[in-house]
């Protein structure tokens, strides 16, 4: 199901130009697919690398010399670069899951305890919610509908 949700996000964004991917289709606070690929990459990184695998990696959008994670800049986004980072994070997440112990083994992060099953379920929910948004925005941008 997580693979299906990831594939759906890619499908919603496929065929749009870089300008269309950066277009703010609804309001200044809501942006289309390039922002979601950046956000999705950060969510993949955070849940699978940080929480499940115990890594403390830097975001590709963190300025050099900074320790703070930077927000993804939609206006200056390189759509192809954002999707490449997202695809890399998805591949890394799949490798972490494949190498992980059973789904019910837990890990602690930030004072909370999570199982891999919980993380995967959360990711399905995260993608499903954003894919609904992407569906509406894609229809607004060029009229394309469907899964």
Automatic annotation (TrEMBL):
InterPro entries: DinB/YfiT-like, MST-like. SUPFAM superfamilies: DinB/YfiT-like putative metalloenzymes. This is DinB family protein. The lineage of its organism: Bacteria, Bacillati, Actinomycetota, Actinomycetes, Kitasatosporales.
């Amino acid at each position: 199901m997580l693979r299906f949700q990831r594939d759906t996000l890619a499908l919603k964004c496929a065929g749009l130009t870089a300008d269309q991917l950066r277009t703010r289709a609804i309001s200044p606070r809501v942006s289309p697919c390039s922002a979601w690929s950046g956000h999705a990459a950060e969510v993949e990184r955070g849940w699978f690398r940080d929480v499940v695998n115990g890594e403390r990696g830097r975001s590709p959008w963190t300025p050099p010399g900074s320790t703070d994670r930077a927000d993804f800049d939609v206006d200056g986004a390189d759509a192809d670069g954002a999707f490449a980072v997202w695809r890399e994070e998805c591949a890394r997440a799949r490798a972490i899951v494949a190498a992980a112990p059973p789904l019910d083994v837990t890990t602690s992060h930030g004072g909370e305890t999570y199982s891999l099953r919980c993380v995967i379920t959360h990711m399905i929910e995260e993608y499903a919610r954003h894919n609904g948004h992407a569906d509406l925005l894609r229809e607004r941008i060029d009229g394309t509908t469907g899964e």
